[in-house]
């Protein structure tokens, strides 16, 4: 479909439709060179949705972009009233505090981060401290402050679970939710 | 702030903060070369918000990304129950049908399109047919099908109102809402 198709070689074949969806939603063919993913990602997301585990989003834009799969709740806690005081107490961002509120819902969940590097950094901390393990992490925050670093760590396997990311500054809520939707559609097919 | 600052020369000085916000939210410094805007845009958006006119969005992701200004309602009608039957009757997309439902709310409104080229094309048709004129159009749909064409027309002045756009395929809901938020913040400052 795309002239850059040959550059898909570094990605698992099970993610071809997902990568195409990410290119389509971003309008950027060369995105493919920065995409990194675990070969177990598609199966992990499919199993999580089959088990009706939650989809945990870092912000409302990601949540709005997700086509809700049957049975799995799709949540963002960024606007939860507990977040602001917790962020203040933690000395961290609201996005990071919202990750703390995921609690036991993390177990077997699909995490989708499209905005906040601090959400990913906090998730890595919690996992290192023994928090319940999600089934998969789609981590594609965007921008100049921490995004590239948070995604490089994910691609290095810091979370120890199947992942999908885009190296560098590019990313965002539309990319993250489009990637999730393509994975969910593939799991249903 | 950015190495490409010199490339801002083709844009109105009143939009500098807006352009920086668009670069920050996208992680793409070279976006600036594709940004096109009318010199009257900042004033037009400010006056519309002062008059508490609506902010009309083409989709929920744009609406979610907008920090609601005092007094101006922020609407997306994409999920309105009238949209699906209207789209079918029109033989057009749901995004285009939702634009028809804006009706008199268009008068003096700020239109923010971040997803659907068909929303922009339908808006041009309605304006040509005498629909109420919005105060400004932030039109930044994304992708391979119609996006570039819809934005080229906007940059050529087809709508006859102050505009902001990004030529080519790049765009999206995050860019569109970030641009609006920066303009709204500038209007309040």
Question: Can you walk through the features of this model?
Answer:
- The structure is a homodimer of 189-residue chains.
- Chain A has 189 residues and is of the alpha/beta class.
- Chain A has one domain: 3-Layer(aba) Sandwich (Rossmann fold).
- Chain A has 8 helices and 6 strands.
- The first copy, chain A, has helices at 16-26, 41-50, 60-65, 83-90, 94-100, 117-128, 147-155, 173-188, and strands spanning 35-37, 55-57, 74-76, 110-113, 136-139, 163-166.
- Chain A is globular.
- The mean pLDDT of chain A is 93.
- Chain A binds chain B through residues 24-28, 60-61, 63-65, 142-144, 147, 168-174, 177, and chain B through 24-28, 60-61, 63-65, 142-144, 147, 168-174, 177.
- Chains A, B: Its EC number is 5.4.99.61.
- Chains A, B: Belongs to the CobH/CbiC family.
- Chains A, B: It comes from Paradevosia tibetensis.
- Chains A, B: GO terms for molecular function: precorrin-8X methylmutase activity.
What order do the helices and strands come in, and which of them pair?
The structure is a homodimer of 189-residue chains.
Chain A: H1 16-26, E1 35-37, H2 41-50, E2 55-57, H3 60-65, E3 74-76, H4 83-90, H5 94-100, E4 110-113, H6 117-128, E5 136-139, H7 147-155, E6 163-166, H8 173-188
Parallel strand pairs in A: 2-3, 2-4, 4-5, 5-6
Antiparallel strand pairs in A: 1-6
Biggest pleated sheet of chain A: 6 strands, mixed
The share of residues in extended strands of chain A comes to: 5-15%
Principal-axis shape of chain A equals globular
Number of H/I helices of chain A: 8
Main sheet of chain A: which strands, in order across? Answer: 1-6-5-4-2-3
* Second rung of CATH, namely the architecture of chain A: 3-Layer(aba) Sandwich
Query: How many distinct folded domains of chain A?
Result: 1
What CATH first level of chain A would be assigned? Alpha Beta
Oligomer: homodimer
Share of helical residues of chain A: 40-55%
Order of helices and strands of chain A: HEHEHEHHEHEHEH
Fourth-level CATH superfamily of chain A? Cobalamin biosynthesis CobH/CbiC, precorrin-8X methylmutase
Q: Runs of chain A with pLDDT <50, length 5+?
A: none
Q: What is the β-strand count of chain A?
A: 6
Most extensive interface between two protein chains, with residue counts: A-B, 22 and 22 residues
Pathway (chains A, B): Cofactor biosynthesis; adenosylcobalamin biosynthesis
Organism (chains A, B): Paradevosia tibetensis
Protein name (chains A, B): Precorrin-8X methylmutase
GO molecular function, one term (chains A, B): precorrin-8X methylmutase activity
């Amino acid at each position: 479909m795309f002239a850059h198709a040959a550059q898909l070689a570094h990605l698992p074949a099970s993610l071809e439709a997902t990568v195409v969806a990410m290119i389509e939603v971003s309008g950027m063919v060369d995105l493919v060179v920065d995409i990194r993913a675990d070969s177990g990602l598609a199966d992990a997301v499919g199993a999580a949705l089959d088990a009706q585990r939650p989809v945990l989003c870092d912000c409302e834009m990601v949540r709005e972009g997700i086509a809700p799969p049957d049975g799995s709740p799709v949540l963002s806690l960024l606007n939860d009233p507990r977040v602001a005081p917790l962020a203040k107490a933690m000395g961290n961002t609201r996005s990071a505090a919202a990750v703390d509120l995921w609690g036991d819902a993390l177990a077997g969940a699909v995490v989708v981060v499209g905005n906040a590097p601090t959400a990913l950094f906090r998730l890595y901390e919690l996992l290192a401290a023994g928090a319940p393990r999600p089934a998969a992490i789609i981590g594609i925050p965007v921008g100049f402050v921490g995004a590239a670093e948070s995604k490089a760590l994910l691609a290095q396997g810091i979370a120890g679970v199947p992942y999908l990311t885009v190296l560098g500054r590019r990313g965002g809520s539309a990319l993250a939710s489009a990637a999730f939707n393509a994975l969910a559609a593939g799991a249903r097919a």
